[in-house]
Amino acid sequence: MEHARSCGPRAAIRAATAAGMAAPLAASAHVKWFAPYIIEAPPQRLMETLTDRWFWTGILLVLVFFLAARALEKTRAGGAVLAGFDKVTGPLWARGDDFMRFVIAAFFVAIFAVGGVYLTPDLKSPHEWVSWMQLLIAALVFSRRTMPLAAAGIIGLWLLALTQYELFHLLDYLALGVGVAAYLVLAASDRLDWNRYRFVVLRWGVAIALMWSSLEKFAYPDWFYPLVEEKPFLTFGMPRDVFIPMAGVAEFTMGFGLLWTALIRRLSALALFVIFNAAVYPFGRLDLVGHALIMAVIVIIFADPTPQVRFALRRTLAAIPATLVATMAVSAMSYWGLHHALYGLDGRSGVAANNNNPGAAARSTHTHDPERPHEAPAAGGSAQAAYLASMQRMHGDMEAGVKHPDPDQAFVRGMIAHHRAAIEMAQIQLRHGTETQNRRLAQEIIETQKREIAEMEAWLRQRHAGEDKPG
Questions:
Q1: Compositional bias (Basic and acidic residues) at which positions (predicted)?
Q2: Are 227 and 298 a contacting pair, CB within 8 Å?
Q3: CA quadruple 453, 455, 460, 464: dihedral positive or negative?
Q4: What does R_g of the chain's alpha carbons equal in angstroms?
Q5: Residue 12: what are its φ and ψ, rounded to 5°?
Q6: Which residues lie below 8 Å from residue 85, measured CB to CB, with a gap of 6+?
Q7: Predicted pLDDT at 34
């Protein structure tokens, strides 16, 4: 018995480390900030996710991680780990309210400087006065008397965005906005029985926001294809259709972990902090500004030393898989059910895209017009217009390439233009087409032509380097 007890922490650490290493903790940008998606498009059938082995592989890995962390938490080693966290984050936690108010104010100053948005880069605003409202919210955060007004301003911005965007689109941002607003109200309260819950509401707001937004990776994997094609290193060499569901599992389960016991909560927060920071370099300051608030809340969650095991259910290992599956089921039913209720089983875009075949459901998930990124494509020839525009660009670029006096360079330059047009046409097919075989072929064309373009561009660089050398 004593031997099993002494081996427990080491076994738990090994299991947690193995699961953590296997989990896809990759850079996680908000796809809506970078892809011209269509919110009304019908989501992929839920059964596609439930029959995906990589989805269940991700679930299994995370469950091993959670169970190992919970087992470790019950031991002296787990207590030592938590004490170490407390020692590192103690100074921050002592000034937690100052930190949060500063970050909230800095966030609203940042989006004021960006201009033309409501709360995130995705929510464009045509009103200049909205930016000044953001600056006012930042100023109101620094006084306890005015913090409730700042909270009202945050909710007001969300309601203003609702006049321009539809409810389903804005649900991503509701939980976090309500969590931050509730924090400001509770932090300003003189009632201790209210004030003590100010960081709890922040934690729940972030957790729900993460779990809800992660469902996009299961409902709309197509939204992520352009990002993966543009930045293939994000998948760490994993195939796209392996990485996307496992990344969705990681985001959902780490959000779920924020609601669990102290060690699971803090390890989940640490993992999320790494994930969000990893997205800053490839996606730039837009991602940094957009995620600044959620990253700050994650830091506070990690610093929070409160045990917060308020329910007996959370003390048992068996409760972890049971509640995780139940939470995923409720979230998925809410996401798919609400979308079907608002847009129908075939989605609003299906009406426009399938006039010639009313019985077919459209899977057109990306708009052809990046300036109108959340609307279904207009009926009648939008794909055709995109194909023709691509062909016209190709002819001009190929003609310019083959005019090079060196026949070898003329061939390579002309073929690069040809391959780029092939990639464009394949991307148009992915945005507008619905036939499975053609979509698979289009994806293969993109991967093959990109590889060949890279080879030809490398040849051109070598040729130019040789020409530049002195004779």
A1: 366-375
A2: no
A3: positive
A4: 25
A5: -65, -40
A6: 266, 302, 303, 305
A7: 63
Residue 116 DSSP code:
S
pLDDT digits (tens, 9 = 90+) for 113-136: 888 888 887 777 878 899 999 999
| Burial (0-12, 13-18, 19+ Cβ within 10 Å), 248 | buried
Residue 281 CB-density burial (10 A; 0-12 exposed, 13-18 middle, 19+ buried): exposed
All structural domains of the chain with their residue ranges: 2-343, 382-468
Contact 373, 39 (CB under 8 A): no
Closest CA to 195 of 97, 298, 266, 106: 97
Residue 15 has pLDDT above 50, yes or no: no
| CB under 8 A, 24+ apart: contacts of 438-446 | 443/225, 446/229
Given a contact cutoff of 8 angstroms between Cβ atoms, the answer to whether 183 and 147 are in contact is no
Give residues with Cβ within 8 angstroms of 206, minimum separation 6.
175, 176, 179, 255, 258, 294, 297, 298, 301
pLDDT digits over 339-389, tens only? 988 888 766 544 333 333 333 334 445 544 444 444 444 444 467 767 776
Query: How many Cα atoms are found within 13 Å in the side-chain-facing hemisphere of 87?
Result: 6
Arithmetic mean of pLDDT, 97-126:
88
Place of tokens 């309500």: 178
Contact 322, 65 (CB under 8 A): no
Would you say how long the chain is, in residues? 471
Sequence letter at residue 311: F
Task: For the beta carbon of residue 458, count every other beta carbon within 10 angstroms.
Answer: 10
Please tell me the distance from the alpha carbon of residue 123 to that of residue 171, in angstroms, as a whole number. Answer: 12
Q: State how far Cα 253 lies from the chain centre.
A: 13
Question: The tokens 């095991």 sit on which residue?
Answer: 309
Residue with tokens 């100010």: 198
The whole-chain average pLDDT of the chain stands at 80
Q: What's this model's pTM, rounded to 2 decimal places? A: 0.70
Percent of the chain topping pLDDT 70: 80
Distance of CA 456 to CAs 231, 234, 237, 416, 461, Å?
19, 24, 22, 7, 9
Query: Does residue 259 contact residue 265 with C-beta atoms inside 8 Å?
Result: yes
- Give tens-digit pLDDT for 188-208: 999 988 999 999 999 999 999
Per-residue model confidence as pLDDT tens digits over 389-422: 677 678 777 888 888 888 998 999 999 989 988 9
